[in-house]
Each structure stands twice: as C-alpha cells, then as structure tokens.
Model the fold of this input.
Amino acid sequence: MYLLGYDIGSSSVKAALVNADSGQCVAAASYPKNEAPIASLHPGWAEQKPNHWWEYLKQATAELLEMAHPDVDAIAAIGISYQMHGLVCVDKEGQPLRDSIIWCDSRAVGIGELAFNDLGHERCLSHLLNTPGNFTASKLAWVREHEPELFEKIDKIMLPGDYIALRMTGHATTTIEGLSEGMLWDFQEGNLAHFLLDYYQIPTSMICPITPTFGEQGRLTTVAARDLGLKAGIPVCYRAGDQPNNALSLDVFEPGEVAATAGTSGVVYGVLGQVNYDPLSRVNTFAHVNHAPTLPRLGVLLCINGTGILNAWLHHEVCPDTTYNDMNRMAARVTPGSEGLTMLPFGNGAERVLLNRNLGASMVGLDLVRHNRSHMIRAAHEGIACAFAYGMKIMEGMGMHFEYIRAANANMFRSAILVETLANIMGATIELCETDGAIGAAKGASIGCGLYADHKEAFASLQRSISYTAEEDKRGVYEELYARWSTLLEHAITNQ
Done:
C-alpha cells in the first residue's frame, strides 16, 4: 500500500510516493526542473497562475509513476502541502479569475497596517494573534479596492492548497489552520474573523466550508484521475501550509517541540500549548496541524529572509570556483568567532523580526592582512545562526523552550558551523532528519485516512541522521560571539 504526497511550492511542485508499511519514500520527483516563473508587474508584486501549479503537479506525478511503476490501485490516500499566504479567487465554476497573489507579494502591506491601526492593536493581536499584515485577507482587500469588477465575480477565495484540493476533488474547502494563516480565523471566538471581514467588506460567503486538516476532504474525481494517471476515488486526507507541514514532517506536534529550515530564507517553527502572541508581532502565530479549541496547539513562526541567500551570494561572487561542500570545509579551518570578523545576514529585504527594517547585509572587523574568504564564509554561517538565535530569544519570551530542534538534513543545516553555533548559543540539541515536505504530506495523509493511529506511529520510521548537542566547554566562546553580533545589530538599528 502507498501514500502520495505533494508539496506545492512557488519554485516547483514536489511529489513523493511512500510505502505505507515501511514508512520509507519509494520515489520522488519535482517539476519544473528550473524555477517556476513568478510575474512581477510592479515592484513588490509576485503572482503565479494557479493552473500552472496543476500542470506542474501532473508532470511531477507522471515522472513519479514512471520511476516507481506502482500499482495505482494500491495508493491509499493523498496529502497536500502548499506555499502559505497566497490568494486564489475563483468563480462559480471553480475557474481562477486572476493570477494568484502569492506569499512574497507585498502590495497589501499598507492595507494591513491601516486595518491594524483602525481596528486597534490589542484587538487584532488578541483575536488574530498577529497584525492583519500582508496576509491573504489584506490581499483580498486590495483586490476589492483596485479590481472591483473582478471582486464582484468571486464565488470563493482559497489558499494555493485549497485550489489544488478543489482540482482533485471538485469540492471547495479550507481548514482552520489555513484560515489562521490568512488572518481569517478568530482565536477568541473560535470562528471566522468577522470583525476583520466586516472591516474589509468581504462577504463571508466567499470563505470556503471548513474541513479537518486530517480526515477525508474529498475523493479524486474521474477527470482529475485521468489527468494524473491515478485511480478515481482515492481520498485526499490531509492539507497544510508548508511550514506547519515541515514541522509535521519532522514529527513536531507537541508543546516545546521545534522545527527549523534554512533555504533561501530560514524558519524556526515551535509549538505552543496556550494561546499567545508577540506584542510587537515580530514572529507570527498560527493554528498548528493538530490545533483544537479545547486543546490549543499553536505554531509560532520566526522567519529570517537572509539565510541561504547570503551563502549563495558568497558562492557566486566570492567562491565561484568551489562547491558548497568545499565552502563548508574552508570555513571549518577557521576558529569559532572568525578571528573577530562579524556579519549581519539581513540582505534580502525587510525583516519582520526587526520590525520590518531593511538593514541590508554588512560585515564588520575585516582585517585585510589576517582575513580571507574562509573567514568570510565562517562569519556568514555564524551570523545566520546568530540571527536565528535573536528571533528564538523573542520566542522564549512567549513561553517557548529550546531543548531540542529538528531540521531536515538539507540546505544550510548541512553546515556544521551553523549547527554548532546555534546549538551552543541556545544550549540545545539539534537533530537532523532525512525527510522533506512531500514525504511529510504523504505521512499526514496516512494519519488522515486512519492507516496510522497517530503521529507517533506515522513517524516511527523517521530517520534521524545527525545529532549535535551543546557543549559546556564551548558555550562561553559562542556566547561571546553572540554578544558581539548583538552589539553590531543594535548599532546598525540605531544608526539606520
């Protein structure tokens, strides 16, 4: 028996086929092979065609089936992970009315800020656990204000994963987790955020019916099955945004458990057992995949825009003749602290954790006699770890504890320097696991269709490949490094 998982990203769609008995991935594929296009008609805009996601999903599925040759009758369930915070507007026939305004589009920032001030900071934070910000509800308000004729034609609004589920099942539904990430869920009332919908003049009829995150959300239609080369009737049993799903992929479900990723940007996602929020909204709080009003499970999300993108810049501009593995080896030759060289990694736009400041990346303490590119690489990796730690200390103020952190053994977490630096600053153990979002979505479907009783059974086969624990004899060096980095950050903020 098999499970099929999809991860609908902005760069590609990934698919994974998992053996339900062993829990191991049988085959994986992605499409397109180069990054999917993002249209930017104006500065700060980012749009994609929802129908393209379906085409990518078809191609990835075809490649997957060609690789594994599974008995399609033995596929028990489908799970979906998707890029968060996007907006898809469809008509009564379920056809997109415009391109999707995706997660990295910033056109609605001003709309969200105005709503925050008009409705009141305390009201928004206590009910939404965030500012209205640049999330899905504010993007829809932008459509109402700037494209009123199109707005009148909208039957339902969706997140990207909701749209893919619609294409699969013919049913337009959403989840509480999805509504919370769009600022459409009121945690005080346990219902839709009517006060924000009313303020934005968004009719509740545009919001899809709610379906559980785990459980049957519909079955593959004959048309969808023909498109995908699968059997009609396979149930879709799980759906979640990419960061909650990444946490699920790493078996992070309960209060105190923490997941992390570090690709172009970096994320730390920890689970809280009580409703709480950062009063300055430097980190975001959403419903986690297993949240229930009677048993709160909230995901607190820290995002650092400037992580892997800094490492990629160094690779292209400073070390074009090397591989990333070579860079890691070069940096390892340098002692902790990079002999006084310090780097701020904030070079990829405004950072929410810094109250939306755009500080840019900077390097301080460069000695032209002593330092070389190995020092620059190490300082960058240490700076990225320090940026994570800066945000994690904000999360500690909300009641989060960092005893264990789990991350996929990929991207920047393949840097032993980043792992060692972060573990010693936070006094934590970091576990690296062999998984990804599409595999996680498949495992989520296994829970949703009842193949596994709970997440403990579903993730018993999770491979933990590397573990690094903070070392008391090293912590002083890294704490001194973090203190120097923090002083540099404070100076940069003060003098901006």
